[in-house]
């Protein structure tokens, strides 16, 4: 047979096989296909001497990104940059370095103690059932490890531990801190770059050191928490008037410990179930922040009557954070939901986490929420004090928040003349002091007037009684 005829014949055989296969897929009942798949795979593994392990990106449905998957991704990053032809690039660390990882359907070889193995990346794509012009596809990525079955012990033990350990180390090295915020039931993130640090935070040196020590001890106390059987978590309650540095302190904490921040907006959380889901998705080494907790939720309303609470808020809170309409469509997250999350869920989540609540009015919070053990450390941030200011001459009894001080110290001219700033600050302090004196004088005058009025009233009553007595 000449080669041309042979090619024609082979070609027609291939075409027939493909046609038969397509027919089989099209018309063969689904169950039969499944059986066929199953038994063909079994027959294949019977003669195939290699073991394959898949590491899926998501575990538990779409709930959590698998830690193993991301460790493997990092581990393979450095290897794939020399072997794979198609790579994915991601920019990290202050937008300065590029980290490469392998693209889908690439393969990379690795060697461990003389044993050769192969990693491959892939994805399962399943189309959603909805009828639409743009059907949503659900991608499930995975890494597949292939090795000879005689190395089973070594690979499943030492090698996988080695991969996870090295992958996690690379992750820490390339780590870029993130600021997460919840929109609906998902977290979205941006790169977290905030210049705040404990050095620049105005506060009494002693208290500041105490907080820094507390944080550092917490972050290195894994063994201690394991030994005493407690979840590795710590709660902080930051309270004080607006502009006294609560948010700044959270940023300083994240910078000190190199943690991510999860800024939880409770008003956007529908109910307790959604809250639980969001919290389960938080990663280790993170700070979970709920700002202005007194305004985010009707926490106190669980135990008091709503009306009383409203009245109280109007008189005490000069700057309510939520408009009234928003109150009406408030989320259904309850105090007990929050308490469960602080106590119950923490214990189930592995890894270190800080939870920080901030509030302007600590007395508004339910005592159950802030008792020791839930919020371990209560930190009051207040007006610039003698120590924080280090300038006793002018401060006196004036109440000035660090935010106001910072505003006066901002450069006022292009040349950044420090004298102008200081003069502005001193002027403001003096004015604040004068105002305080005037206010005190006015108050004293009011008091005097009031006591004179009371005295006159008393005298009038006495006079009337004397008259009555003399008449009788
Ligand atoms: N203790 C402080 N040390 C240094 N800067 C501060 C301090 N407190 C406030 N500031 C400055 O004041 C500004 C406002 O502070 P911040 O947002 O931290 O206040 P806050 O207590 O969170 O207020 P709010 O209760 O309104 O949220 C920031 O720009 C910060 O730089
Ligand atoms: Mg704030």
UniProtKB/TrEMBL annotation:
Compositional bias segments (type: Basic and acidic residues): 307-329
Disordered: annotated segments: 302-329, 442-472
Catalytic activity annotation: ATP + H2O = ADP + phosphate + H(+)
GO molecular function: ATP binding; ATP hydrolysis activity
SMART domains for this protein: AAA (SM00382)
Domain annotation AAA+ ATPase: ranges: 232-385
Family to which this protein belongs: Belongs to the AAA ATPase family. BCS1 subfamily.
Protein name per UniProt: AAA+ ATPase domain-containing protein
């Amino acid at each position: 047979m000449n080669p041309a005829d042979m090619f024609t014949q082979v070609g027609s055989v291939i075409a027939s096989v493909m046609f038969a296969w397509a027919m089989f897929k099209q018309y063969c009942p689904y169950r039969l296909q499944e059986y066929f798949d199953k038994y063909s795979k079994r027959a294949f593994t019977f003669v195939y001497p290699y073991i394959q392990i898949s590491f899926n990106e998501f575990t538990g449905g779409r709930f959590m990104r698998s830690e193993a998957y991301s460790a493997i991704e990092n581990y393979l990053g450095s290897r794939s940059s020399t072997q794979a032809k198609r790579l994915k690039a991601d920019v990290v660390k202050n937008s300065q370095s590029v980290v490469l990882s392998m693209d889908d359907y690439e393969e990379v070889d690795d060697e461990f103690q003389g044993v050769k193995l192969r990693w491959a990346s892939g994805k399962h794509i399943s189309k959603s059932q909805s009828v639409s012009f743009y059907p949503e596809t659900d991608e499930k990525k995975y890494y597949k490890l292939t090795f000879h079955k005689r190395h089973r012990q070594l690979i499943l033990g030492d090698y996988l531990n080695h991969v996870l350990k090295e992958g996690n180390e690379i992750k820490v090295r390339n780590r870029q801190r993130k600021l997460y915020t919840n929109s609906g039931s998902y977290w979205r993130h941006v790169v977290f770059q905030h210049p705040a640090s404990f050095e620049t935070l105005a506060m009494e040196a002693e208290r500041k050191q105490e907080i820094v020590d507390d944080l550092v001890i917490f972050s290195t106390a894994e063994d201690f928490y394991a030994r005493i059987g407690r979840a590795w978590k710590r709660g902080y309650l930051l309270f004080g008037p607006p502009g006294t540095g609560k948010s700044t302190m959270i940023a300083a904490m994240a910078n000190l410990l190199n943690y991510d921040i999860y800024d939880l907006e409770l008003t956007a959380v529908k109910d307790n179930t959604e809250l639980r889901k969001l919290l389960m998705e938080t990663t280790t080494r993170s700070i979970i922040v709920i700002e202005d907790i007194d305004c985010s939720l009707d926490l106190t309303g669980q135990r008091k009557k709503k009306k009383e609470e409203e009245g109280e808020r109007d008189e005490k809170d000069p700057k309510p954070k939520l408009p009234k309409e928003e109150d009406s469509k408030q989320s259904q997250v309850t105090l007990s939901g929050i308490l469960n999350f602080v106590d119950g869920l923490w214990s189930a989540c592995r890894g270190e986490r800080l939870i920080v609540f901030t509030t302007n009015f600590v007395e508004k919070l339910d005592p159950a929420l802030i008792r020791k053990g839930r919020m371990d450390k209560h930190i009051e941030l207040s007006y610039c004090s003698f120590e924080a200011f280090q300038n006793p001459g002018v401060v006196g009894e004036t109440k000035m928040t660090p935010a106001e001080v910072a505003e006066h110290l901002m450069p006022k001219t292009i040349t950044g003349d420090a004298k102008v700033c200081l003069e502005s600050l001193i002027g403001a302090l003096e004015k604040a002091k004068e105002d305080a004196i005037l206010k005190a004088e006015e108050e004293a005058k009011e008091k005097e007037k009031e006591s004179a009025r009371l005295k006159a009233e008393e005298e009038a009553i006495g006079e009337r009684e004397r008259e009555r007595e003399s008449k009788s």
